[in-house]
Amino acid sequence: MKKFRALAVTAAAAALTLLTAVPANAVTLNYEYDANGWTHIHSTDSDLWIKPTKMQLAIQGADGTFTGHMPISPADTKFHVLGFLPIKAQVNFEEAAPLSGRVVRVGNIARVDSTASYYIRLSNVLIAGIPSPVGSNCRTKDPVTLSANTPDGEIFNIANGGNLAGSFTIGDFEHCLLNTLIINQLVPGDGNMTLAVTNAKFISATNP
Prior knowledge:
Blueprint: H1 2-21, E1 28-41, E2 46-60, E3 65-69, E4 75-81, E5 85-106, E6 109-127, E7 130-131, E8 139-140, E9 144-149, E10 162-170, E11 173-174, H2 180-186, E12 189-206
Antiparallel strand pairs: 1-2, 1-12, 2-3, 3-5, 4-5, 5-6, 6-7, 6-9, 8-11, 9-10, 10-12
Keywords: Signal
Signal peptide: 1-26
């Protein structure tokens, strides 16, 4: 076990060295991280848990740019209208574009700037405990762009991970049957997100 851990640490260190060196024909470094976090939607004053998932990144050694994927599992949310009427719904995230961004290095410090794009779909809507049909394709008209960056004063370690934080804006929904109007009066608006990225796993290094 100790030998295996030593090899893993050595591989991660070698990959980090490749990224720092910025060779002309740099390799692509493939990593997988654990990720989970929270979002807060200001319009409904509600929180949504980003359940444990995997973030996969392909980092270009030449300039630190990356692409990747982070599937987000469905999660339940609830809030109150007029202070007393409870509304519950299942929120689903459908990837609209790959995760993209860049690892920016300043001296020995690294940070991440990234964006992800998802359609947000609502299902299993309950108003005061009573099912309120929204159909099978009640979702935002346009993808919601999540900006997630390393918070000020913190760093992102490629071989370990780090915290990310950012914001988003939810636009109008469509195809929600008779509930489209009320959903668009209640839900659209700004929000913020925090994400913990941990347990880095170095997968491979591939040549361009």
